[in-house]
Amino acid sequence: MAGPELIRDTRAWQAYCREARRRGGRVALVPTMGFLHQGHLSLMREARRLADAAPPAAGPRLALASIFVNPAQFGPREDLARYPRDLDGDLAKCASAGIDAVLAPEPADVYRPDHQSWVEVGSVAEGLCGASRPGHFRGVATVVLKLLHLSLPDVALFGEKDWQQLQVVRTMVRDLDLDVEIRGMPIVREPDGLALSSRNAYLSPEERSRALALSRALFGARDRAARGERDAGALRAEARRVLDAAGLRVDYVEIVHPETLRPVERAEPGSRMLVAAFAGATRLIDNLALP
Questions:
Q1: Which of 51, 56, 84, 98 has the fewest CB atoms within 10 Å distance of its CB?
Q2: Domain holding 239: CATH number?
Q3: CB atoms within 10 A of CB 240
């Protein structure tokens, strides 16, 4: 199986994408930080499908991915240096998902030494992970905007596991009038319920067992809501009890409006429950929609 074309230089990537658009092509992009798992590959397979859905007379149909561990979204005491990396393995996985080309730049090519311009998104970036990780979503929004400008995609795909990130990107695209569709894709889970994450590689067997409490807490809240419980405080309290009982250090348990991310008092259909907790030193997040 031929691998995707690997492009390291951002200007060469931009020229590659511009030529595809000039010829009337359709471009689908999956931005990632690498160390790919089946969740990423589900996005890439959908990108392949969307690219191939272009009209028969269209130009190149490109399913593209980026692999870039973005230093701007890591805090000073976070895991940038040890974040898992496996470019060769990632390229093989991209090939299996039908990706045509991969951008994998060096940080100095994305952020020049005199870089001064940053994208700040408002209220959707302020609570939840935004409160726990100051500056995180400024780094996310900035690098996503750069990738969209470099790649000129018709559609960009993001996983729903980081629900807040998805809403930050959608808000930025709306407010800045970017001509791209942002498509969220469902969370992919292990058979026992654990949401796939590159950071799962940090977990010891004992920590992984305790981490299952995140999905148990969410599924339990979903079941209680399906039986008629609408009090957000009661649902949060029970979810926190499940996390505490597993020995996790809870960062937050919230039920929010799915788009504004403002906390709600009643869990109406479509409200989103989001949780973040530490298993050992590893911070994990998960979420789901309440019925």
A1: 56
A2: 3.30.1300.10
A3: 17
The domain tally of the chain equals 2
SS3 content of the chain, % helix, strand, coil (to 5): 40, 20, 40
Residue 144 confidence (pLDDT): 98
Give the residue from 234, 263, 23 showing the smallest Cα distance to 124: 263
Predicted TM-score (pTM) above 0.90: yes
Residue 155 · residue 180 · CB < 8 Å? yes
> Does 205 lie in the same domain as 63?
no
Residues classed as catalytic: 40
E strand spans, 215-281? 249-256, 272-279
Q: Quick one: how far is CA 54 from the chain centroid?
A: 25
1 pLDDT exceeds 70? no
Percent of the chain's residues with pLDDT above 70: 100
> pLDDT (tens digit, 9 = 90+) per residue, 74-113?
999 899 999 999 999 999 999 999 999 999 999 999 999 9
Among the three residues 162, 185, 208, which one is the final residue of a domain in this structure?
185
Q: Are residues 222 and 91 in the same domain?
A: no
- Torsion over CA: 123, 129, 132, 137 (sign): negative
The answer on pLDDT for 62 being more than 80 is yes
CB count, 10 Å around CB of 282?
18
- Is 154 among the domain residues? yes
Task: Please name the helix (run of DSSP H) or strand (run of DSSP E) that holds residue 64, with its range, or none.
Answer: strand 61-67
- Same domain? 19 vs 136: yes
Please identify, among 158, 185, 212, the residue that sits at the C-terminal boundary of a domain. Answer: 185
Amino acid letter at 246? Answer: A
